[in-house]
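hey so u asked for the seq, here:
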Amino acid sequence: MVAQLLLEALNLMVIGMVAVFAFLLLLVLVVQFISTLMLRYFPSKPTDKPALVDNNAGPAPAVIAAISAAVHQYRQQQ
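ran it, structure tokens below
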């Protein structure tokens, strides 16, 4: 009785794993097919490279002045 239930459970497990694997394989193939179609009929156009931004320059002097003025005003209200 227990052996029969274990075999049935093993059978269901294998069927479930095969179904999930088949679905994922089908999903990968469909995505690759759509990607191939998109690249063939709608190729990407080369774009100009954006200008590099220097992140190490720090904040602009106007920003520093605005923050300083806001802090000064806040401290005067306290």
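The mean pLDDT is 90. Helices lie at 2-41, 61-77.
lmk if thats what u needed
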